[in-house]
Amino acid sequence: MTDPNTPDPDTPEGTEPTEPPPPPAPLLRLSEPLPAVVDSDAALAETCAAIAAGTGPVAIDAERASGYRYSSRAYLIQLRREGSGTHLVDPIAFASMDPLQEAIGDAEWLLHAATQDLPCLREVGLSPTALFDTELAGRLLGHPRVGLAALVESQLGQRMAKEHSAVDWSTRPLPTPWLEYAALDVEPLVELRTLLGEQLEESGKAGWADEEFDALRSFEPTPRIDAWRRTSGVHRVRGRRGLGAVRALWETRDAIAQERDVTPGRILPDSAIVAAASAMPTTRRDLLSTAGFHGRGAERYASRWVAALTEVAEMAEEELPTRAPRGDGPPLPRTWADRDPVAARRLEIAKPALSALAEQHTLPTENLLTPDYARRILWAPPATRDPQALEVGIDERLAELGARSWQRRLTVPVLVEAVVSAEAEARD
């Protein structure tokens, strides 16, 4: 018989035997057979009748062709409701989704990362009267990972396969494995909503969530100002004329992409824009011989690229963009110390205080208060320095910016303290 105190000869001396890793969580599977894609009026009528007859909230998801198409339109809409099962609707096949909107009625929508799907669903005529966002609920609860797969694993103990997350959903017909993947995206949402809803109640954050979800119903993507500045590698381009070339080539590419409904990077890569903006060729031959200028659209649209660059070459200096983007917000925080030392001190006081407050309530700082809102207040607070009037002024300004009432109740005292303390220090 082996002495239990005798070291295992296969275990290195001085180390403890390690426990075997836990078995992986079971893979999430469809609870019902995969439904056929709804792409006819008769099939849509059956789906609407089933959704209307179901009970409880409606889980909804949409698939777009990001990375393949210029538009952000929905190419597949998945729905699931207790008592009605899962339905996969092809919105491209229909002139209107009004029958589906009517079938859903006032039922609560369940979405994950609602800001991604609401715009494309609204585009086809679908809009919620009430919603619950499982990703946002996870953030408010302080869960470390809030992706759908992460929450399904941590809360429901199951794994989700994600191998088809970046496919071209404008493909027709859609392959069966893709459809199975899409159906699984709504399969766990009802159960997940129940668990997260209970946690919100237990943590006292249900009211916060209600305010957040209500605000989401009117969500609109923020228009990008000077979107061309996000061109990868633009920092390597020198001078205002070079920046003007990046802008002109980006805008030309964007127009072509929109005309063809193709993602811009498939027309011309960012690296080609940067190469051409650095070399500034003004003939087709010079353009196509520019090192780094390549891609399927480089030669096909050569005349348009040359025209854009020629126009930039002839621009007056004042017509060209500057390095710093224009905006209506405060300057970059790193410049505050030179431009307004008192404002810089306000920010220095407020940042750790907001972080501590977020940690106290177990949620990310950016969900406690949008960082841009805090910077706007701290850069240009209300003129009054009476603490009570200042509190009212900051609260009103945050409300104008879009901060919810629960956020204002928590953060206004912190911002007031930062303003008052920084200016007291400056006087001393």
From TrEMBL:
<dbReference type="InterPro" id="IPR002562">
    <property type="entry name" value="3'-5'_exonuclease_dom"/>
</dbReference>
<dbReference type="InterPro" id="IPR010997">
    <property type="entry name" value="HRDC-like_sf"/>
</dbReference>
<dbReference type="InterPro" id="IPR051086">
    <property type="entry name" value="RNase_D-like"/>
</dbReference>
<dbReference type="InterPro" id="IPR041605">
    <property type="entry name" value="Exo_C"/>
</dbReference>
<dbReference type="InterPro" id="IPR002121">
    <property type="entry name" value="HRDC_dom"/>
</dbReference>
<dbReference type="Pfam" id="PF01612">
    <property type="entry name" value="DNA_pol_A_exo1"/>
</dbReference>
<dbReference type="Pfam" id="PF00570">
    <property type="entry name" value="HRDC"/>
</dbReference>
<protein>
    <submittedName>
        <fullName>HRDC domain-containing protein</fullName>
    </submittedName>
</protein>
<dbReference type="Pfam" id="PF18305">
    <property type="entry name" value="DNA_pol_A_exoN"/>
</dbReference>
<dbReference type="InterPro" id="IPR036397">
    <property type="entry name" value="RNaseH_sf"/>
</dbReference>
<feature type="domain" description="HRDC">
    <location>
        <begin position="239"/>
        <end position="319"/>
    </location>
</feature>
<dbReference type="InterPro" id="IPR044876">
    <property type="entry name" value="HRDC_dom_sf"/>
</dbReference>
<feature type="region of interest" description="Disordered">
    <location>
        <begin position="1"/>
        <end position="29"/>
    </location>
</feature>
<dbReference type="InterPro" id="IPR012337">
    <property type="entry name" value="RNaseH-like_sf"/>
</dbReference>
